[in-house]
Specification:
The complex is a heterodimer of chains A (106) and B (488). Chain A has four helices and no strands. Chain B is 73% helix and 2% strand. Chain B has a two-stranded antiparallel ribbon with strand order 1-2. In chain B, a hairpin with a 4-residue loop joins strand 1 and strand 2. The chains are: A mainly alpha (106), B mainly alpha (488).
């Protein structure tokens, strides 16, 4: 077990983050449910956080760690607003499918 | 790391807006129903105080000097304070245009003014940002506030739809911005913009740096509604309450450009085409050309005035990107012409949306071009204000819009080896096309008979905005020298 951990380097974390980010982007582009899109966006933010933390560890720089904490706080604020908007939308329409939002002219 | 108390003086505009915003949250509980318009007074007072602080700080600094504050998190220079002053004025004007619209359309939410000022505080942070974290916090403070303001008409189906589209696209852009920042931070080993360029040029992983910078270009493209990242903008602009649309079109766009000037123009500039040292110039130039053209062509087909102004504002964002590319490619006049353009564009946009808001009322929002027929006969003053704004948007002399475009294109011509000459050609051709759709509204106002009586939503503060903005537009057009010097 110990041996395994020594073989995990910064590169693994960066690749994991990149994969998470791509999954998030694909989710936003492909899923039509507003809640799932928000979850995919969270995945993107977490991928970015993981990248920041890996680089902060790599450079031995504490400010990167504080950056990650700030991102977590801001992401929480953003999600709070987003969920409120989704709830307001659901009350009027009984669905949160972004493809069926076409009151505004295209 | 030390905390220098005197640095606080240099963020006076930010502090004033934040504290007034918080006071407004408290004050909101003491104002009920109709009295809520009283909150507008406090919001305007806070914005004006922030404007005065910006002017004082601006005059205190030498031209060209810049001082890093809070351990390189923010920077104090004349450019920054010119923009914090602009954002304060935008906030005051938007606050003044709001009560009439709230009264007519029944969304008298008191928290609106608090969110407006806190969002403006985020903009002032962007104007002074010198660190990736400061840019991130500024962008988010501004955007989250605007999402809420867009969604304030809770029972309006169109309002909800606009808010959700705006939120999802904005949050998506945040993901790109953050991942881009993470990669750039990793390649440079620092998040301070002042050291970033030298570190990026010396990095062992230029591909990571370039990927990060491209992601940040995409993210700002979303915030600025640049083509091909503009799909949300017309819907969000149409569905949001008109004063909020004005704030989105004038303030958010200007703040995004301010952050881009800091990041790409000042700190990562000196790039050369085709791909350059840090690799943002070519994508920016292509996006600029696309944005000007697509925005304009789509605007020609619009019958809804708000949507037409939305597409026209997309196209104006393209002109700003031209200035930005010129600045990054070493044009010495790029920054001052961009500041002039931002002031001209913001004031003009607020003027046009103020008239849109005035013409409509509870019964008829009057958003179609046909609804404006005969306004010139019935309400010549309002028609004149709209005409000045439209001429300025179209870039006709003697308005601010003409000199704005002129200076930006001139700075693009200053770039070595005529690298941007074709971009200037695209811009000039599109300016000519844009006059068609602006004049369509002007002809409807003056040369067609009114089909039904107008029922404008009268309100003294809104009318002050409709008088003040055209005066500034003409003053900027007649005396461009003073305004052009602000950005140095």
């Amino acid at each position: 077990m110990n041996d395994l951990l020594t073989h995990i380097g910064y590169g693994h974390f960066l690749v994991l983050a990149a994969v998470l980010f791509v999954m998030g982007v694909a989710g936003v582009l492909m899923r039509r449910n507003a809640l799932i899109i928000m979850m995919s966006i969270e995945l993107m933010l977490n991928a970015a956080n993981l990248t920041v933390l890996t680089f902060a560890r790599m450079h031995g720089d504490v400010s990167g760690h504080t950056f990650a904490l700030i991102v977590i706080a801001v992401a929480a604020a953003e999600v709070a607003v987003g969920l409120a908007i989704v709830v307001a939308l659901f009350r009027g329409r009984r669905h949160v499918d972004v493809d069926r939002l076409n009151t505004l002219k295209h | 790391m030390t905390f220098v108390t005197t640095d606080m003086a240099y963020i006076a505009p930010l502090l004033i807006l934040t504290v007034t915003g918080m006071l407004l949250v408290i004050a909101e509980s003491f104002f009920r129903g109709r009295d809520r318009a009283g909150l507008m007074g406090l919001a305007v007072a806070g914005s004006v105080a922030s404007f005065v602080a910006s002017v004082v700080l601006y005059r205190q600094l030498e031209p060209g000097s810049s001082k890093l504050i809070f351990d390189g998190m923010l920077v104090a220079d004349r450019f920054g304070f010119a923009l914090t002053g602009l954002f304060s004025v935008i906030t005051a004007l938007v606050a003044m245009s709001t009560p009439a619209h709230q009264r007519e359309h029944g969304w008298e939410n008191g928290e609106y003014y608090a969110i407006l000022l806190l969002s403006a505080a985020g903009m002032t942070m962007l104007a002074q940002a010198a660190h990736l974290v400061a840019i991130f916090i500024g962008v988010e403070t501004m955007s989250i506030g605007v999402y809420v303001m867009t969604a304030l008409r809770r029972r309006s189906r169109r309002g909800n739809e606009a808010a959700l589209k705006y939120f999802l696209m904005g949050a998506f852009a945040t993901g790109f911005l953050l991942y881009g920042m993470a990669l750039v931070y990793g390649a440079a080993g620092t998040a301070e913009l002042a050291q970033m360029k030298t570190k990026l040029l010396a990095t062992a992983n230029p591909e990571i740096a370039i990927a990060g910078i491209l992601l940040m270009v995409i993210a700002f493209g979303f915030k600025l509604a640049a083509v091909p990242f503009h799909m949300w903008a017309p819907d969000a602009y149409e569905g949001a309450p008109t004063p909020v649309t004005a704030f989105m079109a004038a303030g958010v766009k200007a703040a995004a450009v301010a952050a881009m000037i800091r990041l790409f123009g000042q700190y990562l500039g000196g790039d050369v085409l085709p791909f350059g040292a840090v690799g943002w110039a070519s994508p920016m130039v292509i996006i600029a050309g696309l944005t000007i053209t697509v925005g304009n062509i789509a605007a020609v087909r619009q019958n809804n005035v708000k949507r037409m102004l939305a597409y026209s504002s997309i196209s104006h964002g393209g002109v700003m990107l031209v200035g930005l590319a010129a600045m990054g490619l070493g044009s010495s006049t790029g920054q001052s012409s961009l500041v002039y353009y931002l002031i001209a564009y913001s004031i003009t946009t607020i003027a046009s949306f103020a008239v849109v808001s005035w013409v409509g009322s509870r019964d008829r929002e009057r958003l179609l071009v046909d609804d404006w027929a005969g306004l010139g006969q019935k309400h010549p003053a309002a028609a004149l204000a709209m005409t000045v704004a439209l001429l300025s948007l179209g870039g006709l002399p003697p308005t601010a819009g003409f000199f704005g475009k002129f200076y930006v294109f001139k700075s693009a011509m200053d770039v070595a080896d005529n690298q941007l000459i074709w971009l200037v050609a695209i811009g000039v051709v599109n300016s000519a096309i844009s006059i068609y759709y602006y004049l369509r509204l002007v002809t409807a106002m003056y040369f067609r008979e009114p089909t039904e009586p107008f029922t404008p939503s009268r309100s003294a503060p809104l009318e002050v905005v409709m008088v003040l903005c055209p005066i500034i537009i003409l003053a900027m057009g007649l005396l461009p020298g003073f305004w052009l010097g602000l950005g140095n």
